[in-house]
Write a structure and sequence with these properties.
By secondary structure, the chain is α/β, with parallel strands linked by helices. The protein folds into two domains: 3-225 and 405-418, Aldehyde Dehydrogenase, Chain A, domain 1 (3-Layer(aba) Sandwich); 232-380, Aldehyde Dehydrogenase, Chain A, domain 2, CATH 3.40.309.10. It has helices at 3-25, 28-44, 46-62, 67-73, 77-92, 131-142, 156-172, 189-195, 210-219, 242-254, 270-286, 295-301, 334-344, 357-366; strands spanning 100-105, 111-118, 121-126, 146-150, 180-182, 203-207, 232-236, 263-269, 290-293, 309-311, 325-331, 349-353, 371-374, 394-395, 403-404, 411-418.
Length: 425
């Protein structure tokens, strides 16, 4: 890593900080127009982005990238259209800046309350998924924050094209193009330099594998929001509607298996297992899912279940598969299911399928996760699906944000006190 590269990174941090001050003063109209310009560009200027993405995908495949990561890297015209839709959804959301809340009048006549303000500069270090570039840029612009982005080398060409598109679009709206900064040097040592830039970066959000997130959390000098590792369970209770359970499990596993809110483990109550598991397994296997079953599930499916049914090992519990693989375990009670989730869950997304109100309420009360579902697929843990437009990440920690992080999670507040000459005695 050269002194020139570090100096350039520092200059980007300085530019982002200066732009953040400008953004905070811009009207909602200008910030929204910048977003609408980005959405239009994503639909009308796709050629450079898709060309860069094709080069990135070919290079990644040649280097042996696994299928899950390749799927995250891939962009198509349809995925770009989805990104444009999400950006428009962000533009349509209420402006969070300047919102006054928690207002009261004290006995001495002081009117006191809070006013929502931007964080300043949001940094993000992430891998593979180029849609993250647009999601973070859009949410930061809407919330009045600048951003400093460092994607992985595997998506360098794609991200370079996306950032050029975004910067042109926001400049056309009268917003500072410098508000979106992208580190285009793939030198990994720049990550360490970025983690030391607390004077420029107010919040850092890593998105990627376990090792990246752990490294950032351990070495960052600024606040970090961690998450994204999703070991997601669906528990089929004894009172579950079996057709509903099959449909929910299938969707949670198959709809997009390479993302963090996809199902990893199915827990099935022993009283429901004989009725639901054969049909559930048949549909999953037909979709190409490999099932890693405990001995009770294996005995229900029988010795001729086929090559897609394997005996589970201890390593299967608590594993984020990111592929068409699911672990299956038969349990004797809700208590056993809750204990399994407590032991092996990652605090991301957990679901119960049940017609028993008390079981549903216990599950909601006792499962410690960012998103807890009753009779729905965990695939909904997503900023756009939660009505947030998009997300900068999914936090599995409890401070300062939890779950999909949208606009409000990218703001802070300041106390505003209105007086009429009061002094403290």
């Amino acid at each position: 890593m050269t002194t020139k590269a570090v100096n350039q990174l520092t200059q980007q941090g300085q530019a982002a900080k200066a732009s953040a001050r400008q953004l905070a003063r811009l009207s909602a109209r200008v910030r929204n127009q910048a977003l609408l310009n980005i959405a239009q560009a994503l639909e009308q200027e796709q050629a450079p982005v898709l060309s860069g993405n094709q080069q990135d995908c070919r290079a990644a495949q040649a280097e042996g990238m696994d299928a899950a990561m390749l799927d995250r890297l891939l962009l198509t015209p349809e995925r770009l259209a989805d990104m444009a839709r999400d950006v428009r959804n962000v533009a349509a959301l209420p402006d969070p800046l300047g919102e006054s809340f928690d207002q009261s009048t004290l006995a001495n006549g002081l009117r006191i309350g809070k006013r929502r303000v931007p964080l300043g500069v949001v940094g993000s270090i992430y891998e593979s998924r180029p849609n993250v570039t647009v999601d973070i840029a859009a949410l930061c612009l809407k919330s009045g924050n600048a951003c400093l982005l460092r994607g992985g080398k595997e998506s360098l060409r794609t991200n370079t094209a996306l950032v050029a598109l975004v910067r042109r679009a926001i400049a056309q709206a009268g917003a500072p193009a410098e508000a979106v900064q992208f580190v285009d040097n793939p030198d990994r040592r720049l990550v360490e330099a970025m983690l030391g830039m607390k004077e420029y970066i107010n919040l850092l959000i890593p998105r990627g594998g376990v090792e990246l997130i752990r490294f950032v959390a351990e070495h960052a000098t600024m606040p970090v929001v961690t998450g994204g590792i999703g070991v997601c369970h669906t528990y089929v209770d004894r009172s579950a509607d079996l057709e509903m359970a099959t449909r929910i499990v299938f969707n949670a596993k198959v709809q997009r298996p390479t993302v963090c809110n996809a199902l990893d483990t199915v827990l099935i109550h022993a009283e429901a297992a004989a009725a639901v598991l054969p049909r559930m397994a048949q549909e999953l296997i037909q979709a190409g899912v490999e099932l890693h079953c405990d001995h009770r599930a294996l005995s229900i499916l029988g010795p001729n279940a086929g090559p897609k049914v394997l005996a589970a090992t201890e390593e299967d519990w608590g594993k984020e598969f990111l592929a068409l693989i699911a672990a299956v375990k038969v349990v004797d009670s809700l208590d056993e299911a809750l204990q399994h989730i407590e032991t092996y869950g990652s605090g991301h997304s957990e679901a119960i399928v049940t017609e028993d109100y008390s079981a549903a309420q216990r599950f909601l009360e006792e499962v410690d996760a960012a998103a807890v579902y009753v009779n729905a697929s965990t695939r909904f843990t997503d900023g756009s699906q939660f009505g947030l437009g998009a997300e900068v990440g999914i936090s599995t920690q409890k401070f300062h944000a939890r779950g999909p992080m949208g606009l409000r999670e990218l703001t802070s507040y300041k106390w505003v006190i209105m007086g009429a000459g009061q002094i403290r005695e």
